[in-house]
Write a structure and sequence with these properties.
about 35 residues; mainly alpha; elongated
Length: about 35
């Protein structure tokens, strides 16, 4: 869905920054999931 957006971020920040962003997204999703449950 947001593949182009992620690719642009990957080009600017690099793989290390990408992993940090992905981990932050995962944490946010887990928090939202926990609140809903």
């Amino acid at each position: 869905m947001k593949i182009n957006f992620l690719q642009k971020i990957d080009n600017r920040i690099g793989k290390e920054g990408m992993t940090l962003i992905m981990s932050n997204i995962v944490e946010m999703v887990n928090i939202k999931g926990g609140v809903r449950r």
